[in-house]
Design goal:
The complex is a heterodimer of chains A (464) and B (363). Chain A is of the alpha/beta class. Chain A has 14 helices and 12 strands. Classes of the chains: A alpha/beta (464), B mainly alpha (363).
């Protein structure tokens, strides 16, 4: 009795798996088309001239960059040095040392010749005690806050309290920004007063050469794992975030680079202590706007504005992805009231349900789908023909989407100047659905059942 | 037994095949398109001429599309970088003489896509020709372009650059105000457009415009326009007008802040507004007074601002301290002036902590 019921369940489950695969592939394909349309419009248009003209007339909004740093001794100097060289008239850099146990703080003090100062700090957002504030004689816009360890959100809140400007740019301490990153973000902010947040595409720095704290040559790493992540990032941005903005449904801006309106962040009480603080922040910002009937927009720029280091070993990668999955589930649970609630517009009716069914429950559906196919096939309850269809949907469409996003990258920013990098990415496009994706899905499947775990998980960093 | 009917599977199979073949074909097409676009982009964007090359006679023929584009791009760049009003006028006349705008306009009208139209529009705008106004108005009303942000932003930018008289500024004002409501453009962007327009018409026309301009209501657009005044040289007419507007709308905080900032940029000697408002209950006004008060007030009157050292608002204290530091005013002088004007104002703790912060952090 039990076995036939189980078999019946598996048979029925195939419909769900089938719908899931069709759904995810169609949505991703449509997103790519939407991104392509946006890219075409700007292909010949030189925004830079217009933007530099805006800067000359001082019709801009100054920006505070906040970079929380915890045990970042390998990358912090390069990262701060690159932040100091941005093309922008008025910005401050606030580095928040979140109680690092390594040499992060000493390195910053030594390299930038910092000295302790006493400055007032606004106490609008709660955070752990600040031990010291440092400034540099040479770099007037660099401020370093040394505080007790409280996590990334706590450090960001401290930075926001200390910031002076109306726009906040939150970056990771291991990232290198493109010189015009702030300018590109500003362009969006001055064009639409409804805008509350802007994100940009994130590039993978692994394998590139750095000289004088700047990206000298952008190259793809020889490491398979890092190469797969490049493809994954490309797909995430070109087939995801840029596509979502067309319908104003964007609810995720990467923690590695995002510019936000400070007043809205203060109104919602800053970052919440969670594993997915970036996702949670934007959902809360949008929730606040809907609840207070504020017409608002969120956008993502289809250009790589920021370069970040991705994990180069499987242990670090799986730790990172497990944290992302747990953060996603926690945020979805926290905002469960919004899901399928028409009061929250597209966020409630489309974006959050998508994240719930496609992103959060995706690993379970995939796992059970493949499991059911194997069981049913071994009982000769499905034909090889059916298996082939699922194979096509799961893998071949995945390969095509990879190639599409790769072409979008070539068409837009074209960061890698050597063709060999693109040849390798083309090859990785074929391998990724068979090697990388299954491992990740398995980890996400485990993380889904482990969502009560709040451990951050330390990731190994390479020296920049 | 068969979980998904064969009929359905057959349809999916065909769809997948079609999709797969189309995708491969698309990729090939995409690759070829990319090559074509790249070649075109390189030829369009990279070639620019110097001023010396521009005045060479052989370029004046401007027969091929490539020559027209190169010439327009180069002369546009030079015009955008030239701040001298007389030189700008001379260059504009030169453009008229060689009939450059009609040639680029033909390229614009013959363009096959929004992508190319946008490119040609970005070449037309820096030429700052009054005759291009018709095109900009058309872009702002045409249903194909009026909702595309790149088009309407560039069209207003073009209108601002080609402004020549007071009527043009009045017309620009009504367009910007309309778009601020319909398209939600920010006050900063509006300010940018007015700044460019004032630069184009020149100081004399600007003063003429404002001397006859009466402020009927205060909106973000009027504020942007007033704020843009900071980019034209100061004049008594403008400063008097600013003070008059404040008298007409004494309760409007944003207008007051805008006026204070313009007076500060103009290094005005009118400090009556600071004397009147430095103790205003509105935090924003006090922040602005704390930031710019030292520049507007004569040195001997600085002491009246020292109560900012223990203001309840952190940004007031912070801005005042930063302003003191920027002016290299010594700790001793601040202490002396504080004691002179407010001997009993601070509690010992308050004054000590603020002044100590100032001493440690900023000097």
């Amino acid at each position: 009795m039990l076995i036939p019921t189980f078999i019946l369940f598996l048979e029925q489950f195939q419909y769900l798996y089938f719908l899931y695969l069709i759904g995810i592939n169609i949505i991703t394909t449509l997103m790519i088309w939407s991104t392509l349309k946006q890219m075409f419009l700007n292909y010949f248009f030189d925004t830079q001239t217009f933007l530099y003209q805006v800067l000359k007339t001082k019709a801009y909004l100054p920006i505070s960059i906040i970079a929380p740093a915890f045990n970042e001794e390998e990358t912090i100097i390069t990262s701060i040095s690159s932040l100091l060289k941005l093309d922008f008239n008025e910005y401050e850099i606030i580095i928040v040392n979140d109680g690092s146990q390594d040499e992060t703080l000493h390195q910053i003090i030594k390299h930038f010749n910092l000295h302790p100062v006493t400055l007032p700090i606004e106490s609008k957002l709660k955070h752990k005690t600040i031990r010291n504030i440092y400034r540099s004689h040479k770099y007037q816009n660099l401020i370093v806050l040394d505080k007790e360890n409280g996590g990334k959100s706590d450090a960001l809140n401290a930075g926001i309290n200390f910031s002076n400007y109306p726009l906040i740019c939150c970056v990771d301490a291991d990232t290198i920004l493109e010189k015009d990153a702030l300018l590109q973000g500003l362009e969006r902010f001055i064009q639409d007063k409804r805008l509350i947040a802007v994100g940009g595409a994130i590039g993978v720095i692994n394998g590139s050469t750095i000289q004088n704290h700047r990206l000298a040559e952008k190259r793809l790493s020889n490491n398979f794992l890092e190469g797969f992540q490049v493809l994954e990032y490309l797909r995430g941005f070109f087939a995801g975030r840029v596509g979502w903005q067309g319908s104003n449904g964007l609810i995720l801006i990467s923690g590695a680079f995002g510019i936000f309106k400070k007043d809205i962040i203060l109104k919602i009480g800053g970052y919440r202590h969670t594993l997915g603080e970036d996702f949670d922040l934007l959902v809360r910002m949008r929730r606040y706007c809907y609840e207070n009937k504020i017409d608002h927009r969120v956008t993502s720029i289809a250009e790589v504005l920021c370069w970040t280091q991705t994990p180069s070993d499987y242990t670090s990668l799986l730790k990172q992805r497990s944290r992302w999955q747990r953060g996603l589930l926690e945020t979805l649970y926290h905002h469960k009231k919004l899901i399928f609630n028409p009061k929250y517009g597209i966020v409630g009716m489309i974006s959050l349900p998508y994240f719930l069914f496609i992103e959060a429950l995706g690993p379970i559906i995939t796992f059970l789908g493949i499991f059911s196919l194997i069981i049913l096939y071994s009982f000769e309850l499905v034909t090889p023909y059916t298996i082939l269809i699922f194979f096509l949907l799961e893998f071949i469409w995945g390969i095509l989407l990879n190639i599409f996003t790769l072409y979008l990258d070539i068409f837009s920013t074209h960061p890698y100047k050597n063709n060999w990098s693109y040849m390798k990415l083309f090859l990785f496009s074929f391998l990724e659905p068979f090697i990388y994706k299954p491992i990740l899905k398995a980890e996400l499947f485990i993380a889904t059942f482990n969502f009560m775990n709040t451990n951050w998980g330390e990731i190994k960093r390479k020296k920049l | 037994m068969h979980t998904i009917s064969y009929k359905l599977l057959h349809i999916i199979w065909i769809l997948t095949e079609v999709f797969f073949i189309l995708s491969i074909l698309f990729l090939c097409l995409f690759f070829i398109l990319k090559k074509i676009f790249d070649r075109k982009k390189n030829s369009l964007l990279k070639k620019t001429l110097s001023m010396e090359e521009i005045v060479k006679k052989e370029y004046l023929s401007l027969e091929t599309d490539q020559e027209i584009i190169t010439y327009a791009k180069s002369i546009g760049n030079i015009l955008m970088d030239t701040t001298d009003f007389e030189k700008r006028m001379a260059l504009k006349k030169h453009i008229q003489k060689i009939n450059l705008y009609p040639k680029i306009y033909i390229l614009y009208t013959h363009a096959y896509s929004h992508m190319m139209r946008l490119y040609f529009l970005s070449l037309i705008i820096p030429l700052a020709q009054a005759e291009s106004n018709t095109l900009y108005h058309h872009i702002l009303t045409d249903k194909k372009t009026k909702d595309i942000s790149q088009f309407y932003t560039l069209a207003i930018f073009g209108l601002a650059l080609s402004s020549t008289n007071t009527q043009d500024i009045t017309s620009l004002y009504s367009i910007v105000e309309k778009l601020a409501l319909e398209k939600n453009i920010t006050q900063k962007l509006s300010q940018f457009f007015f700044t460019e327009a004032f630069k184009s018409v020149g100081e004399a026309v600007c003063i003429l415009f404002f001397s006859s301009y009466s402020l009927k209501k205060i909106t973000s657009t009027t504020n942007a326009m007033i704020y843009a005044l900071q980019n034209i040289p100061s004049s008594e007419t403008i400063e008097n007008k600013l003070l008059l507007w404040h008298q007409e709308f004494p309760d409007n905080t944003m207008l007051l802040i805008t006026i204070l900032r313009v007076l500060y940029i103009h290094k005005s000697k009118h400090y009556s507004l600071i004397l009147h408002h430095h103790t205003n209950h509105n935090n924003l006004i006090r922040i602005v007074c704390a930031k710019i008060g030292i520049d507007l007030l004569p040195r001997e009157k600085l002491g009246i601002l020292t109560h900012y050292l223990c203001d309840k608002n952190i940004h007031v204290r912070k801005n005042f301290l930063l302003s003191l530091a920027q002016h290299n005013i010594s700790f001793k002088e601040i202490y002396r002036q504080t004691m002179k004007y407010y001997p009993n104002c601070f509690t010992k703790q308050q004054s000590c902590s603020s002044l100590e912060a100032y001493k440690k952090g900023l000097l």
